[in-house]
Design brief:
The chain is of the alpha/beta class. It is built from 5 helices and 15 strands.
Length: 280
């Protein structure tokens, strides 16, 4: 009798739509936010021009994306200088904060209740061997509604405290922190989580932001404790890419298929990437 077991489940964590896309007939590539003595952030992306010639910005951080250290640190690596093995496939611990957390660190917006402030006690104690952490806060429905592009919304994004960022940076095996929020820092934090994680030496902890985990929440109840996270960046145009839009997927074992999934996960994580001598 043929088996109908599903050894591997794959869920797309990228939003169905861009968080913000200008309706522009022409696109130019340029610096959107340049670092200077008053501004520590660097962003390069594309600018859409409307029929009247007005510029409407679209950065490399619109939609699901990966942050490189240069995004926040002038001396940090650009994405093209980071080996793809750093982020392509990572053994991942899932941290489900969608329910049963302290009311003081939760918010309700448009009827959506979610965990807003991630602190050190929210982080599992045993993380050795994990290469990525995926925080699921319940903010995903608001991303799908376009809430992040409303005035003042950035003060309500789920974010990391400085203590949480420091705790994550202390995990030697960790290479990625991913979450269902447009950023890991609220405005008042002045980018402290970005600085702490992207600035870790000798190996930075890259950030994967603007995910929506609602498909995962519908596919698995309760959420799997661990799985495989894959991050596939789109080509970031222009010099010195501080990040890139990326398709992000989460893989986990089907019921009773832990051994088969481990073989699959190990094969992807241990694969040696070889240059084919092709320059794009």
């Amino acid at each position: 009798m043929a088996s109908h077991a599903t050894p591997i489940c794959r869920v797309d964590l990228s939003p169905a739509e861009y968080a913000h896309v200008p309706q522009a007939p022409r696109i130019e590539r340029r610096v959107i936010l340049a670092r200077d003595e008053t501004n520590p952030w660097q962003m390069r992306g594309v600018v859409g021009l409307d029929a009247g010639g007005r510029a409407l910005g679209v950065s490399n951080h619109t939609w699901s994306h990966i942050d490189a250290p240069f995004h926040r640190l002038a001396a940090g690596s650009t994405l093209d200088r980071i080996a793809p093995a750093h982020y392509l496939a990572s053994r991942t611990r899932v941290v489900d904060l969608t329910a049963s957390t302290a009311p003081a660190r939760r918010e309700t917006i448009r009827g959506v209740d979610y965990h807003s402030l991630i602190d050190a006690p929210d982080i599992p104690e045993q993380l050795d061997g994990y290469e990525a952490l995926l925080f699921v806060t319940g903010f995903g429905p608001l991303i799908e509604q376009g809430y992040p592009m409303t005035d003042g919304a950035d003060y309500h994004y789920p974010s990391l405290t400085s203590a949480a960022a420091a705790r994550l940076a202390s995990v030697a095996s960790l290479r990625l922190v991913a979450m269902d929020s447009p950023t890991v820092d609220k405005p008042e934090a002045d980018g402290i989580a970005h600085v702490t994680l992207l600035g870790r030496t000798p190996t930075p902890v890259l950030l994967v932001e603007t995910l929506t985990c609602e498909r995962l929440r519908r596919a698995a109840r309760p959420l799997p404790a661990e799985g495989l996270l894959t991050v596939e960046p789109l080509r970031a145009f222009g010099p010195d890419p501080d990040g890139a839009l990326a398709s992000v997927y989460f893989y986990f074992a089907g019921e009773g298929q832990d051994a088969a999934f481990e073989i699959f996960s190990r094969a992807l994580r241990d694969a040696t990437l070889a240059s084919c001598g092709v320059t794009l």
